[in-house]
């Protein structure tokens, strides 16, 4: 469905085809991503009689939210919400589900050939239906010094906590959003509270009119308030309304963090600065496929244009979970199941009446989970300082392009994402724009006075993940004639 105020943007599908080879893996449904959406969809589809292949980059299923849950759930300090993913893991134990771990999907062609690699060897899987459950990525938080050693996203620190049990020590947390409070509470529970929280502005006045709509999700709001109470009880200092965040390297591997509040300029020192300003849909694979996208003004990000069942602009390609719009783990679980139910209907396994009957409780759960999003999106907007950072800020980490260089290119007429790539190579490095695209767009919007929805996302091309020439050559990929 098209969100209110959303702007459409689509690309023509890629004109490539998979090599003609015998012995390709063929399934009824291929799911990319083994997070809550992918796991829920796999189980529902398999129980309906479909052969399912689940492709995921990690060693174990769980996605980012339930990463390493089979082991980490026993540690306790990650919380009850994290432990809820255990049943999804158990749900993959079905004879019609094939889980392919360490599988990096780097291309999906227009004939539904899914090309992926593992351990240096490429494979092709063909499927009647495809579900993208690629999840979200952390929104880049650019400011002077964000590329220094000792500065990293809070979500990356949480990955280390889940994967290896490594808890940050004496860290400073900076930014805004629920995940920042969750990481702080987990650190406190693990016996290593953060040194301080540096919080950007929270726009409660803008959010309050949306509070009545959030009532069905009151439990989520209560959890958030509980996290804040836990942080206060632990005596963690909180600096609110922070602006002009900067970091500098000092002796002994320490990072000096400076920022302004109403009380003037503040400075803290630590070996670790963790930053966070929310998450955005991970759309590179969807965009490379040519799916139509819309700009979500509330979440300040692009997302695929989807039906209420998660169907994309390509008939047999579905999207579920945060990759289709940020909603959280519970929403992702419901969206994955809904997409699977519609896929079963399309495969002739369910009639319309049974499909709709099974969907009703899922839609209630989804509505309840999403009810709080408008309030959170309004309460935690991205501050202008990070959408269009100071001149000395490195925006494109791969090519070491600064905000000053982008502003100079804009003054010379590079008023679009493609022109900026041609001029400065922004988005041309290994991350393919994942770390800079939102900021480049923000700088273009600042200079031209255009809405981000008028600028458009950068063109995503295959391979969407770095692969070796040997992996490509072994498949014998070739462009269609007259493409």
Automatic annotation (TrEMBL):
Q: Which residues form the SoxA A3 domain?
A: 394-473
Sequence ranges assigned to domain FAD/NAD(P)-binding in this UniProt record: 28-336
Please name the GO terms that the record assigns under molecular function.
oxidoreductase activity
Which keywords does the record carry?
A: Oxidoreductase, Plasmid
Pfam families reported for this sequence? Pyr_redox_2, SO_alpha_A3
Which protein, by its recorded name, is this? Nopaline dehydrogenase
Q: Which organism is it from?
A: Paracoccus jeotgali
């Amino acid at each position: 469905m098209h969100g209110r105020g959303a702007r459409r943007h689509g690309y023509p599908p890629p004109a490539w085809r998979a090599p003609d080879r015998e012995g390709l893996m063929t399934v009824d449904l291929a799911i990319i991503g083994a997070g809550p959406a992918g796991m829920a969809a796999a189980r529902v589809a398999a129980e309906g009689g479909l052969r399912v292949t689940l492709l995921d980059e990690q060693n174990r299923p769980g996605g980012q939210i339930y990463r390493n849950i089979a082991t980490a759930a026993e540690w306790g300090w990650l919380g009850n919400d994290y432990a809820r993913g255990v049943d999804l893991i158990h749900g993959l134990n079905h004879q019609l589900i094939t889980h392919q771990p360490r599988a990096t999907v780097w291309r999906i062609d227009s004939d539904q050939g899914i090309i992926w690699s593992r351990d240096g060897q490429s494979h092709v899987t063909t499927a009647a239906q495809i579900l993208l459950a690629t999840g979200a990525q952390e929104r880049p938080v650019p400011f002077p010094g964000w590329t220094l050693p000792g500065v990293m996203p809070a979500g990356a620190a949480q990955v280390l906590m889940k994967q290896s049990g490594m808890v940050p020590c004496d860290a400073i947390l900076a930014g805004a959003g629920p995940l920042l409070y969750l990481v702080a509470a987990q650190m406190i529970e693990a016996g290593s509270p953060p040194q301080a929280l540096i919080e950007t502005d929270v726009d409660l006045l803008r959010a309050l009119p949306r509070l009545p709509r959030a009532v069905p999700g009151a439990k989520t709001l209560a959890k958030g308030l509980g996290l804040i109470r836990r942080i206060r009880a632990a005596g963690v200092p909180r600096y609110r309304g922070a602006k002009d965040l900067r970091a500098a390297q000092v002796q002994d591997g320490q990072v000096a963090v400076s920022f302004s509040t109403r009380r003037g300029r503040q400075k803290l020192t630590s070996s670790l600065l963790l930053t966070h300003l929310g998450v955005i849909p991970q759309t590179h694979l969807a965009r490379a496929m040519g799916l139509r996208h819309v700009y979500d003004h509330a979440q300040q990000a692009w997302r695929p244009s989807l039906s209420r069942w998660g169907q994309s602009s390509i008939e047999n390609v579905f999207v579920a979970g945060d990759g289709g719009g940020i909603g959280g783990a519970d929403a992702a679980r419901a969206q994955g199941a809904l997409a699977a139910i519609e896929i079963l209907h399309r495969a002739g396994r369910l009639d319309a009446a049974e499909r709709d009957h099974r969907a009703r409780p899922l839609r209630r759960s989804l509505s309840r989970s999403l009810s709080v999003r408008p309030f959170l999106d309004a309460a935690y907007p991205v501050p202008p300082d990070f959408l269009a950072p100071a001149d000395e800020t490195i925006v494109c980490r791969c090519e070491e392009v600064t905000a000053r260089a982008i502003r100079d290119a804009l003054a010379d007429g590079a008023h679009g994402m493609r022109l900026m790539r041609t001029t400065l190579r922004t988005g041309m490095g290994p991350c393919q724009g994942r770390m800079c695209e939102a900021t480049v767009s923000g700088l273009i919007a600042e200079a031209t006075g255009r809405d981000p929805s008028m600028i458009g996302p950068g063109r995503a091309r295959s391979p969407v993940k770095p692969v070796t020439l040997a992996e490509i050559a072994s498949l014998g990929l070739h462009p269609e004639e007259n493409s």
